[in-house]
Specification:
With 482 residues, the chain is α/β, with parallel strands linked by helices. It contains 21 helices and 11 strands. The protein binds NADP nicotinamide-adenine-dinucleotide phosphate (NAP).
Length: 482
């Protein structure tokens, strides 16, 4: 029998898997075994890329035999049942100490379940979030692996070799145990939803209020990309707005149906945040904005409802554009602040030792939300590891304070003019809620106590209280009441 030659294997050779396999093969020292359920994809890959020196296998037994021990395999198949099917197959041919990595977009609770089940066989299981799409998989993604420290020992050097690089550092770190990697990847995607929606709201205002054409707005975004908003999403927005439709000669953005799709990771972020009790309101509004856009019957029925009460006349267009830019930046800070709140809450709930500054670092390149801005987040957590809310870090607090007049003008102007800015507006409300001296939550507690005897605490005394709302005595302590 021949000696196994591959130090890494890839299962699933659709878009992501084939590109990741090519990326792995292009790095010195790697020999890659490949397997796909239907052999045609394997054949296509090895025929199209002879330079990669892939070891093609057509059964799981052959795949396992091709791998050096401890065997390491990255699964890139359809998330859900596909992943479970491959894990079942690999656990029958792998041995204790081997490593199975799921690089698909799994729900982190599935990863927690799978990790426990696979660990019981002695095999390591690592859920790794991989961001950057097809291009990232080929040239260097941002990678967010979970799993055991033992698995990271073997896997770390391999993943470092294929990850994107930012300021000389590979965009990969051991995020935490079991589902931590997929959890953080999910939050990354949630922030991505907010970032995209904020940019879309800025575009809408520049178009409808500023009276600018898509090509002009493209120039503005290109300009913004040279400042503090510098990011991949701002950069591609300029490209999208520049594009002209070959058939009609119109800006392409005007012929694209205005109904945004979603694959579910934004909704997962919001669902998880609801479970954790974390107000990710900006991310939620971004998810809901896509849902609203995709309700054509309701939109048609509501089309003639009354709207603006005040036309928004812009006398100084440059000042207006700057207001929108600042509102966008402030709202973006809130989206990241909320996203990191969710990471902190997840880490507490699931007992993960997540280093927030490291997460910001590995998002600087390779992934969709990549931006220079992330350096500031790393610095904020380095300055104060116990920082309770990113928006309160001096750099971000100053940035928001500087943007505040613009932000308020934009949100109030849009409300009067009947232009939807759900993410701008909810981010501003969140900010005002967070900084409020007193919130009307006191009244809500009173209501809850009235109808449900849910009790309340007081600002001036220790204890738990319940009021007999229709009785003589205005209040008694809960301890006395029960
Ligand atoms: P995909 O379309 O999600 O899945 C197709 C692959 O899954 C094929 O190789 C298919 O094999 C395999 N598969 C499905 N069911 C299977 C089963 N029961 N047993 C074995 N193999 C099975 O592929 P993709 O777009 O390359 O994505 C792969 C993973 O990466 C997904 O989890 C996706 O969510 C994640 N991801 C994708 C992107 C992206 O930009 N596309 C970005 C990040 C992460 P056959 O060829 O035999 O059908």
């Amino acid at each position: 029998m021949t000696q196994p030659q591959a130090n890494i294997g890839v299962v699933g050779l659709a878009v992501m898997g084939s590109n990741l396999a090519r990326n792995l093969a292009s790095r010195e020292g790697n020999t890659v075994a490949v397997f796909n359920r239907s052999y045609e994809k394997t054949e296509t890959l090895i025929t199209d890329h002879p330079e990669a020196g892939f070891i093609a296998t057509s059964t799981y037994d052959e795949f396992a035999a091709a791998l050096q021990k401890p065997r390491t395999a990255i699964i890139m198949v359809q998330a859900g049942r596909g992943t479970d099917a491959v894990i079942d197959a690999l656990t029958t041919v792998f041995e204790p100490g081997d490593i199975i990595v799921d690089g698909g977009n799994a729900l982190f609770t599935d990863t927690i379940r799978r990790e426990a089940a696979v660990r019981a066989t002695g095999i390591n299981f690592v859920g790794a979030g991989i961001s950057g799409g097809e291009e990232g998989a080929l040239n260097g993604p941002s990678i967010m692996p979970g799993g055991s420290a033992e698995a990271w020992e073997t896997l770390g050097p391999i993943l470092r070799s294929i990850a994107a690089v930012a300021d000389g550092e590979p965009c990969v770190t051991h995020v935490g145990t079991d589902g931590a990697g997929h959890f953080v990847k999910m939050i990354h995607n949630g922030i991505e939803y907010a970032d995209m929606q904020l940019i879309a709201e800025a575009y809408d205002l520049l178009r409808r209020v500023g009276g600018l054409e898509p090509a002009e707005i493209a120039e503005i975004f290109a300009e913004w990309n040279r400042g503090e908003l510098e990011s991949y999403l701002i950069e591609i927005t300029a490209e999208v707005l520049k594009q002209v439709d070959a058939t009609t000669g119109k800006p392409l953005v005007d012929v694209i149906l205005d109904q945004a799709g979603a694959k579910g990771t934004g909704a997962w972020t919001v669902q998880s945040a609801l479970d954790l009790g974390v107000p990710v309101s900006g991310i939620a509004e971004a998810v809901f904005a896509r849902s609203l856009s995709s309700k054509p019957a309701q939109r048609l029925a509501a089309r003639d409802l009354p709207g603006a009460v005040d036309a928004w006349e812009v006398s100084d267009r440059a000042a207006f554009v700057e207001d929108v830019r600042r509102a966008l930046y402030a709202s973006k800070i809130i989206a990241y602040s909320q996203g990191f709140d969710a990471i902190v809450a997840g880490a507490e709930q699931y007992d993960w030792d997540i280093r927030k500054g490291e997460i910001a670092k590995i998002w600087r390149a390779g992934c969709i939300i990549r931006a220079q801005f992330l350096n500031r987040i790393t610095e904020a957590y380095a300055d104060d590891p116990e920082l309770v809310a990113l928006v309160t870090a001096p750099y971000f607090a100053d940035a928001v304070a500087g943007a505040l007049p613009s932000w308020r003008r934009v949100v109030s102007g849009a409300a009067l003019a009947g232009i939807p800015t759900p993410t701008f507006a909810s981010s501003l409300s969140y900010y005002d809620g967070l900084r409020a001296d007193r919130l009307p939550a006191a009244l809500v507690q009173g209501q809850r106590d009235f109808f449900g005897a849910h009790t309340y605490e007081r600002v001036d005394r220790e204890g738990t209280f319940h009021t007999l709302w229709s009785g003589d005595r205005s209040e008694i302590s809960a301890a006395d009441a029960h």
